[in-house]
Each structure stands twice: as structure tokens, then as C-alpha cells.
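Kindly go through one protein, given below as sequence and C-alpha cells. The question is how this chain folds according to its C-alpha cells.

***
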Amino acid sequence: MKVSKVPELAPMSAIESNPAWKAHYEATKDVPEVSLDDLEWADAIIFSIPTRFGNVPSQMKQFLDTTGGLWFQGKLANKAVSAMVSANNAHGGQEQTVLSLYTTMYHWGAIVVAPGYTDESAYKSGGNPYGTSVTVDSEGNMQEDVKDAVMHQAKRTVTVAGWIKQGMQG
């Protein structure tokens, strides 16, 4: 398992103007940045992103735009992928953001592993069948208890990745 982040593109003045963003920036400063090699290596990829006006943040979009070579070579096909999202309010575009991200995954030929309603945790965490979503207040505190939903989604994604890998070896 690897945890990585896309490069931050925003100017420090923007980051410093938002206490939660600045705290996150500082807390993740030692997390390595993702590379295309990471995507090629992984059997399962779980994206966790904030929403930006109901869409994928520019930092993630810029990274995804660099995956064309891997896509062209078929090296992203049949990867198990899933996504989670956060926003500042309950109707901040979480579902739309996950679906926007999945559009790229469909082009890759990846296998989208949505949590659906395959576990009670989906109902307890807000009921997003496309990917776990959470509301985060201006101090960076999660408003819903999504821990069980995140764990279920991650386990489901890894399980499906195992099935895909096993099926491709057979």
C-alpha cells in the first residue's frame, strides 16, 4: 500500500488564507507526491479529493492529464478504482465530483468499484452510493462519521482488485 498526493498548485497566499487548507498542507507536507509509476504499479487505486464547485480540483485534474501515455499503452486498463470526496456543505457537489473523476477512469478502461449500498455504513455516513463523502467544516472537522464507510469501500476495492488480478492470471 502507498499513500501519495498530487502536487499542490495553489499559491501559498491562497493556502494561508484558509486555516483548514493550511493545516492540511502542513500535516501532509511529508507525504510523497504521486508518480505515473505509482499508477502503473497499483492493482487498486482509491482517490480521495475535495470538491471544487462540483468538480475535480485542478491539482488532481492536472495530474490526470499526464496519464495519457499510460492510457495509450493500456497500462491503466483493468485497474480497480474508487473515489471518496469532501466538501464544505452537504450539497456541495460531492456526488458530481466523484462522477466527474470516474469519467477519466472510464476512459482508462479501469473498473470502477463504487460502494453502492452494499453495507449498512453507507446509510449511516450519508448514503452516497458512488463513493464515501463527508462534509468538512471551516476548521477541517468532519461532520459525519464516515470511518466504517471508508473502511468498507477500501476493503471492497481491494477485494475486487484481487478478483480482477486472479481472473487475468487464469
